[in-house]
Every structure is written in C-alpha cells, then in structure tokens.
Design goal:
Layout lengths: L1 E6 L2 H8 L2 H8 L4 E6 L12 E3 L7 E3 L1 H12 L5 E11 L2 H7 L4 E6 L7 H7 L2 E4 L9 H12 L32 E2 L2 E2 L9 H19 L11 H19 L11
Parallel strand pairs: 1-2, 1-6, 5-6, 5-7
Antiparallel strand pairs: 3-4, 8-9
Helix pairs in contact: 1-6, 3-5
Bound molecules: 6-chloroguanine.
The site of 6-chloroguanine has 13 residues, from β5 and β7.
C-alpha cells in the first residue's frame, strides 16, 4: 500500500510515520509513505502558497495552483483516491478504514490556514474526511490518524500477537480490561477468574466486562452490537443497580459494579 501526503510540513509526517509498528512496516516494504511539500510547487519569488479570501473575512486560504501541481506530481495518469482532511468532512470510523484499506494508493491532502481554494478541491478530491467534532490547526495529525488505522489492516503489518481480532469495535463493543504480572500491585489483585485456567469462564467474564464498559462509556454502540436477549436482560439489571447506587438506596454500595 502506498500513501502520498500533500502537506506544508513533510517532516512532521515522515518523522511520525517512520516510528513504531508503522515504521517497521515501512522498513519491511509492506507500506510506503511519501510526503510532498506543497511549497515546492509555489513558483513565485517567496514560495508563497496562501492569499486573502475573495469576499473578505479573517484568515488566509491556500491557493489552488501549488496544491494542484503537488497533486499532479503524485497522481500521474491515474486518478488515485484523494482524501482532503477537514472538519467539514464525513466522519472517519473503522468501517471507512476497512474500505480504504482495499485501495492500492491513497493521497492525503492536508490544509492549513482557513482552508483551500474550493476550485482545486472540486478537481482533485474524491473524499472529504473529518476525524471528529473538534478543530485542529492543520490536516497532518488527522491524516496520520487515518494512515495508522488503515495501515494496521494491511496484511502482515501487525504480528499475530498484535492482531486486531478481539479489539474494540471488531465485535461492536469496547475492549475488556486486561492484566499482566504481578498478581497483586498497589494492593489491587487480578480478578480471580483470570487465574482459574477455566477458558469458558474467562471468555464469559470478558464478554460481560466488554458489555459493562460499553454501557458505561459508549451506550450508543449497544444497539448495533448484536447482543443476545440474555445480555439485554443483564444490561437492564445493571442499569437498575446503577440507578439504585446513584440514589444511595443500594445496601451493597454498588461494590459489585466495579
Ligand atoms: Cl480532518 N482536519 C482539521 N484541520 N481539523 C479536524 C479534522 C480534520 N478532523 C477534526 N478536526
């Protein structure tokens, strides 16, 4: 898989993406990442890439021509999937990542200032994407979030032990808590079921913990998580207990909820 990033800060991309698991994948040639400096395509005296907006208003806009030429330098004859990172875009999620991971080539366009001249976006951009409802100073961090997420789906990028099968969202639920040695740390013990060696009980406990966490932190995910009737009944019971402990009417003090 090949990523091209059109940016005013290529070193920000290269430095980060050549680190850790993604860096290892680049070294092993499962992945290649190219950062193209848009400023190299500003053929004016001061290599200026921005200008005032027509119609007035605060802030500067990235101009169409250098963005277009930077894109043309990587696009060649093909028209690769070209993603513009913007808070106005469609929200990025695991499903979109899965779909984009099927592409051979992806181009990421990172804007700065108040954005980019609309005319060049119309000509080169196939997808406008946002990584969440907040505003960043530029598209680079958002592009790197997307690349990290997409790259880990490329076969061979993750080792078996890093494989994503049981992680959050693969079954539509948040991940269960995990523990490693020592067995007791800061007076906190590992939940006994995990030491029991009873695989079915461990699996049942983990599933229950996943559902409980999802109920607490991301209840919006429950509806589409494919829960059984028994699990929905459990949720109703937990909710009742949570409500009781909030109201202070629970004699047990809600201890078993934690
Ligand atoms: Cl994709 N870009 C910028 N600049 N800000 C964002 C974003 C993207 N997603 C959320 N905030």
């Amino acid at each position: 898989m090949h990523f091209s990033v059109l940016t005013l800060f290529p070193e920000m991309i290269l430095h980060t993406m050549n680190t850790s698991i993604i860096g290892r994948a680049v070294e092993r040639k499962l992945l290649s990442i190219e950062a193209v400096n848009i400023r190299d395509f500003a053929f004016n005296k001061h290599q200026k890439v921005d200008d005032y907006t027509y119609g007035g208003g605060a802030g500067m806009l990235m101009q169409a021509e250098p963005v277009y030429l930077a894109w043309a330098s990587v696009a060649g004859e093909r028209k690769p999937r070209t993603i513009y990172l913007t808070p106005q875009g469609k929200r990025f999620d695991q499903k979109m990542a899965k779909e984009l991971a099927l592409e051979e080539d992806l181009v990421f366009l990172c804007g700065h200032y108040e954005g980019i001249d609309e005319r060049v976006l119309e000509e080169i951009v196939t997808d406008q994407v946002s990584i969440g409802d907040y505003v960043l100073t530029g598209g680079e961090l958002a592009a790197m979030v997307m690349m990290d997420c997409i790259a880990r789906m490329v076969p061979g990028v993750l080792s078996n032990s890093e494989s994503g099968e049981t992680e959050s969202f693969s079954d539509g639920l948040l991940e269960y808590p995990q523990y490693s040695r020592p067995e007791v740390w800061h007076d906190k013990s590992v939940p006994p079921v995990l030491l029991s060696g009873h695989h079915a009980n461990v699996a049942a406990w983990r599933r229950e913990q996943s559902i409980l966490r999802t109920l607490k932190w991301r209840p919006d995910l429950l509806r589409t998580a494919g829960l059984t009737n028994k699990e929905w009944a459990l949720i109703r019971e937990w909710k009742k207990k949570m409500k009781e402990s909030e109201e202070g009417t629970d004699s047990s003090g809600g201890e078993e909820m934690v």
